[in-house]
Amino acid sequence: MAKRPSILLFIFIACCFAVVSCTQEFEFNQNRRLLIKHEWKINTFVDYSQNQTTEFRESVYDFRDDNSLIKTYENNDTVVTAWELSADADYITIGSNTFKITGLSNRVLSLRYGDVEMFFVRL
Questions:
Q1: What is the CATH number of the domain that holds 15?
Q2: CA separation (Å) from 108 to 13, 39, 57?
Q3: 49-61: per-residue pLDDT in tens?
Q4: Count of domains for the chain
């Protein structure tokens, strides 16, 4: 009978790992789906070190399923780069820059890089 508590403890720990890994996988897939589902446009660009919004060149961001990002400017110039979510879906790497995902919903995407935060709206 002394072995029973250790078996129950092992089963409990195994279940905890399964739940945590499923949650991370769900969040990763959910964030990936939301990014790919829409085209995005920067609505606001905030520089917290200057405590002001900053001017920016209007462009549309199209995250593709093949991990390419197509950025199209208002004059139809395009830039193509790669993007990748971190395993926990808390960060996104675009080109050589890694951004903290501070918000992602069906309507809004916000990314932070140092003192700069970009707020995107879906098109």
A1: 2.40.128.280
A2: 37, 11, 19
A3: 988 887 778 999 9
A4: 1
